[in-house]
DNA sequence: CCATTGTTTGAATTTCGACTCAAAGAATTG
DNA sequence: CAATTCTTTGAGTCGAAATTCAAACAATGG
């Protein structure tokens, strides 16, 4: 028995491919995604890509999963690293949620991948999960603020959190789509103004 | 001179092709768009499609233009046909701005086409123009309400209008992407709640 | 150091859809 | 109706990218 043969580090290779695919999608878009690009970016042959991902859709789904994970973690980190003051933390959340420019690659990638959601249940699930987690972050921030008396919420934390995430998504969509009327700085100001309004916290 | 030959109704044919292309995009997505599908939907041969649109991108741009135009007109109509009461009119705008279901084809089409904006200036321009016109509609509604004393605006009509459009876009994106946590009815309620908050108009 | 199995390659093949084009069909003018 | 030009067709060509595959290349166990 036990002819192990050669149990290589498949996970490492897979990880490299996912990262390479993300890069390729960022550069040429989902539509223009070619196996060759992924292979080149990862420094392997086309055959290797297919060896690990006979179904290319699985790879794209993995890219999506990775992007969602990375994004949520970065926001969680922004929240945790901000000073404990609820207003500061809420502001940190807002700052971490908008694309800094039309070239912001993580946001660009996420919007690209979200488009698949209408057609693919797997992607829809990831988008749903991202939304839920972002709502969770905002909810917590709002509730802590309310509990400490810094915020006076205009509605349930849940509802307000939904609104903030949707607002961010709307502005973000316009930013990455190069709508000249929506500049990142302006979007940030408007989201903050909205946050100020619904929390009754002037120091935001 | 003057051998007119056969000046057919090119515009009618073009219009038919644009409509057929819109249908094809709705069904298979921008990525999967094939000349054959357009031809089939229009009931002509592939050659004819190329005869009128040697550059397929031009056709897609035309689809986008048509979708934007149709959407803006439908909202304008919704606004005009509502009773003159500012609150009723604002509500009509909100109602006409959200997809009624994940299958809403006009909204679906628009989100699909907006994705090209990041990569194509022509599409970016259309998206920008749509945004500006929607903002215009909301601005007017808000200003009329403020002038008649029905609304008490929490900020400039411009800024509030931006916020309402972005909010709609954000929720709309989740709806067409089949995010189960964002139901059309709920989204509508939340947008209205936001409108109520920023206008101080309880009867909204 | 040989046997076994996992991995990688790249050339050959297949697939699919865009694009070409010559010929046929239709409207208009005179 | 003859001449002219616009329109339509669809079979054939072309090219790009996916997919296959047999052979070469490790790593590990014994």
From TrEMBL, chains A, B:
Residues 34-53 bind DNA. Pfam families: TetR_C_6, TetR_N. Keywords: DNA-binding, Repressor, Transcription, Transcription regulation. InterPro entries: BetI_C, Homeodomain-like_sf, HTH-type_TetR-like_transc_reg, HTH_TetR, Tet_transcr_reg_TetR-rel_C_sf. It comes from the Bacteria. The keyword Transcription regulation applies. Residues 11-71 form the HTH tetR-type domain. PANTHER family: HTH-TYPE TRANSCRIPTIONAL REGULATOR BETI, HTH-TYPE TRANSCRIPTIONAL REGULATOR RUTR. This is TetR family transcriptional regulator C-terminal domain-containing protein. It comes from Streptomyces luteolus. The lineage of its organism: Bacteria, Bacillati, Actinomycetota, Actinomycetes, Kitasatosporales.
């Amino acid at each position: 028995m036990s002819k192990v043969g050669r149990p290589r580090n498949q996970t490492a290779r897979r990880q490299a491919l996912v990262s390479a695919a993300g890069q390729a999608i960022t550069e040429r878009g989902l539509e223009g995604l070619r196996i060759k690009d992924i292979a080149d970016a990862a420094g392997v042959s086309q055959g290797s890509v297919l060896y690990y991902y006979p179904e290319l859709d699985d790879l794209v789904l993995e890219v999506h999963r990775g992007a969602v994970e990375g994004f949520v973690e970065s926001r969680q980190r922004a929240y945790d690293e901000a000073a404990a003051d609820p207003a500061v933390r809420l502001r940190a959340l807002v700052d971490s949620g908008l694309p800094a420019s039309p070239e912001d690659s993580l946001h660009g990638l996420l919007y690209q991948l979200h488009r698949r959601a209408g057609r693919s249940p797997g992607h829809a699930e990831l988008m749903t999960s991202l939304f839920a987690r972002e709502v969770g972050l905002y909810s917590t921030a709002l509730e802590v603020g309310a509990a400490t008396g810094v915020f006076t919420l205009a509605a349930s934390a849940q509802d307000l959190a939904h609104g903030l995430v949707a607002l961010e998504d709307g502005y973000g969509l316009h930013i990455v789509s190069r709508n000249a009327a929506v500049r990142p700085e302006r979007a940030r100001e408007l989201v903050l103004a909205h946050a100020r309004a619904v929390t009754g916290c002037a120091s935001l």
